[in-house]
Amino acid sequence: MNLGVRVKSYFWVCLMIMGVQGLTHAEMTPVIRQPDGTGAVPKVELLWLGQSAIRLTTPGGKVILIDPFITQNPKTPEKYKDLDALGKVDLILVTHAHMDHLGDGPALAKKLHIPLIGPAGMNQSLVALGVLPSDLAVMMNKSGTVSPLGPNIHITMVHAEHSSELDWVNPETGKHETHVGGEPVGFVIELENGFKIYDMGDTGLFSDMKFIGDYYRPDLVLIPIGGHFTMGPTDAAYAIRYWLRPRFVLPFHYGTFPLLTGTPEEFEKALGPIRTKVLELKPGGTVTF
């Protein structure tokens, strides 16, 4: 092959690569809609309902509800307090047994007859107490991967540094009881188009966040910043800047209760200049990719 042909071939290969990269970048640019906003039908849509409650719609139209603390959530917009307003839901994921995460999960699972996936110990207790039937309480554990919505959506359970007591009101005595809730977890969710979301649940810093970043390479991280029970803004910023380095990050689990004092402004200040884009949502707002 002569020099002219080689140069021309190299030129066209470069154009092809640039074109593919440009297309990918355009497809993954987020579009944020606040509660009163409008926009195009998304490929991936994430609706934040306050605290850690997330409704995720996949490119194939599957709907995953994560940590559905809704009806008792002071930050959830009123229209979503009617659970029917959530529309179709195919799967529920719960990171741990605390009621600001488990929330309406069992009631929705039974109402819609859909599976609720959570830490094995938590789901075992929910079945033993008669809160959930065994066919809806899918038990798994850290490092396990399941595909309950079909072969193109993969859900992996990963570590979290927190606690997971299950507070249950005994219907016979009316008293609160504490039961085994398993260990707290996070979820890495890979969607049909390869987009990966790491929902950290409630957690403090732990060094294997770097492993999760290196191994799973999440595109979007949902990170708690409220402090007191989880990372505050400074710890969360450290995890994003040095260990996880995603393309996008959504801070959540703040401002719901007085003790959760961390703010997105503090998080962004601690994060400093970095390529990761911080998604600023209000409860009821959506972001699409």
Spell out the blueprint of helices and strands.
Layout lengths: L2 H26 L2 E3 L11 E4 L5 E4 L5 E4 L24 E3 L5 H4 L2 H8 L3 E4 H9 L8 E4 L4 E2 L7 E6 L6 E4 L6 E4 L5 E6 L5 E4 L9 H8 L3 E5 L8 H12 L3 E5 L11 H8 L5 E2 L7 E3 L1
Parallel strand pairs: 4-5, 5-6, 6-7, 13-14, 14-15, 15-16
Antiparallel strand pairs: 1-17, 2-3, 2-17, 3-4, 8-9, 9-12, 10-11, 12-13
Helix pairs in contact: 5-6, 6-7
CATH top level class name: Alpha Beta
Number of helices: 7
- Which topology does CATH recognise? Metallo-beta-lactamase, Chain A
Q: Which homologous superfamily in CATH is the superfamily?
A: Ribonuclease Z/Hydroxyacylglutathione hydrolase-like
Strand order of the largest sheet: 1-17-2-3-4-5-6-7
The shape, in one word, is globular
Description of the structure:
There is one protein chain. This protein has seven helices and 17 strands. The protein has 289 residues and is an alpha/beta fold. It has a single domain (30-288), classed as Ribonuclease Z/Hydroxyacylglutathione hydrolase-like (Metallo-beta-lactamase, Chain A, 4-Layer Sandwich). A hairpin with a 5-residue loop joins β12 and β13. It is globular. The model is unreliable at 1-27 (pLDDT under 50).
Task: Kindly summarize this structure in a few lines.
With 289 residues, the chain is of the alpha/beta class.
Keywords for this entry:
seven-stranded mixed β-sheet; eight-stranded mixed β-sheet; 26% helix; Metallo-beta-lactamase, Chain A; 289 residues
